[in-house]
Amino acid sequence: MDKLFKKKLFSPYLVSFLSVSIVSILCLFIRNSIDYRIVGYILLVLVSILAIFFKIKPVLLAAVLSSLALDFLFINPYYTLHIDNAEDAFLLVMFFIIALINAVLTNKLRIMQRKIQEEETRAKTLKLYNTLLDSLSHELRTPIAAILGSIDILQQKEVNLSTETQFKLHSEIEKATMKLNYQVENLLNMSRLESGYMQPKFDWCDITEIIHNVCHRLSEETSEHRIKFFIEDNLPLFKLDYGLFEQVIYNLVYNCSQHTPKGATIEIQVKYDVDIDSHIYLIKKCLITISDDGYGFPVDEIDRAFDKFYRFKNSKTGGTGLGLSIVKGFVEAQNGTINLTNNENGGATFKLSFNVDCLPINSLKNE
């Protein structure tokens, strides 16, 4: 009932009526000080403003009411629709025609803009859909083909497979399954970000443990890379979302492993810092830097690194372009920021900063 009342209260027709009435009453107080033609201009501007926000019918109502108000209140003789001279009659007719044309043209312009926006949105959606479909057709097909191929070989009874061969096939299945799971997780995570259903569950996290767990999970992908850790001793526990933070580190390290040459070095640095703001409040920060000495990012495209579905022009085949956009979304969901720069000597650096609560490990010794 309340919603229905509010809908009627803010009806475009009612707003048009009230707008013309209020402006007319205000002008009535200074009727003797200004020319009635100026009042006509004011009412014409009012109709133009209403045409920006409302559809054609409420605007037409405003145009008719404005013409009647101009004639009844401001053109001599007052308080009658009678007009003494042809000049005023012509002025009133022209006022109504201009207001009408203005309303119609503005309405058509709004319709055209809406159609253009819809077409642009449709084209953008189609482009994203084609990009995603093209990426997934490769990214999902490859691990699925590896899984099916390995299972097919293992199921062939007439072929005697050695223990080593069986182990390799099982390893291939595991690797392909992990890759498939990574792509599906990225899609699900992006859906969560897009829907706005992202509610971090903050709890005390051991950052060092999370980073080492992620690197262990990616040991296969980073087997031909060197990973160096620069983690401060006695780091406090930070209040973050364990799952989101783990996914952030996973995506960044995985991205470094996939876009750097064999033998490249990946450095992971974690620091704890305290800032003092203008109100002399202590701001506790968890600072994480992940860098590599690979190829870096194209200078003219680096600003689009975190765009959804964006893949660099010279990037290798594959990839959905979701990994880094998910990283940005997950970092911001935890009150953090992320920055990407190219290194002077090659490679790229991701800098993450989280404003967090912290709990010194020393305080847990007596518990």
From TrEMBL:
Transmembrane segments annotated in the record for this chain: 12-32, 38-54, 89-105
Protein EC: 2.7.13.3
Alphabetical keyword list: ATP-binding, Kinase, Membrane, Nucleotide-binding, Phosphoprotein, Transferase, Transmembrane, Transmembrane helix, Two-component regulatory system
Catalytic activity: ATP + protein L-histidine = ADP + protein N-phospho-L-histidine
Superkingdom, natural source: Bacteria
One protein family per Pfam: HisKA
SUPFAM superfamilies from the UniProt entry: ATPase domain of HSP90 chaperone/DNA topoisomerase II/histidine kinase, Homodimeric domain of signal transducing histidine kinase
Residue intervals of the Histidine kinase domain: 135-358
Gene3D superfamilies reported for this sequence: 1.10.287.130, Backbone structure of the membrane domain of e. Coli histidine kinase receptor kdpd, Histidine kinase-like ATPase, C-terminal domain
Localization per Swiss-Prot or TrEMBL: Membrane
Membrane topology reported for the UniProt record: Multi-pass membrane protein
InterPro entries associated with the record: HATPase_C_sf, HATPase_dom, His_kinase_dom, HisK_dim/P_dom, HisK_dim/P_sf, Histidine_kinase_KdpD, KdpD_sf, KdpD_TM
Location (main, coarse): membrane
Kinase among keywords: yes
CDD domains: HATPase, HisKA
Keyword ATP-binding: yes
Name of the protein: histidine kinase
Species annotation: Flavobacterium ammonificans
Organism lineage string: Bacteria, Pseudomonadati, Bacteroidota, Flavobacteriia, Flavobacteriales
